[in-house]
Amino acid sequence: MATLLYHLGRFSARRPWTVVIAWIVLLGVVTGAAVGLHKPLTSEMTVEGAPFQVTLQKLQRELPPPRAATARWCCAATTAPSPPRRRPRSPRP
Known about the structure:
Layout: H1 2-14, H2 16-37, H3 51-62
Helix pairs in contact: 1-2
């Protein structure tokens, strides 16, 4: 292993631009594969036949669809009272 790392380091030191270009090509290949092969993300999870899945399907059939809910709230900003002013100390006699 030490010999392999030695040769890799020596090659990288002798041909730095070849190594930089190889890393850029590798990054491009990995990025292209990630973009081309990814599946769309979803938050749904199904396990057919599991008790919770049967219960969820039953609830979806029996419960009415939810209606759009709206809510209003109001926020009033008030200024905090300013702290009392300190009187200057009088000189001691």
